[in-house]
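User: Before I run my own analysis I want an independent prediction to cross-check against. Here's the chain; please return only the structure tokens and, at the end, one sentence I can use as a sanity check.
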Amino acid sequence: MLEKVPEALASRITAEIAIPTIGIGASAACDGQILVIDDMLSMFTGFRPKFVKRYGELASAAEAAIARYAADVREGPFPAAEHVYDQAKDGDVA
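Assistant: Structure tokens:
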């Protein structure tokens, strides 16, 4: 795996070794690429390396969902009866 390696070096390494190279910010000269899903989906806003391409902007949606969940737990609507196993109806639950 080559991370944050200049393209010329990534190209040279890829040409000289027999195993595939996988790049994280190391250019298309590598045999394959990794883009961390949290970066791809923009799950947070404070950190953005140069090699990240964002394919979605989900940070605000995730923050809103987490806030709704926390409020439901604090205020009582979650978990409700439909979210709780009933041994008589659901069988033996370990």
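Sanity check: The longest strand covers residues 22-24.
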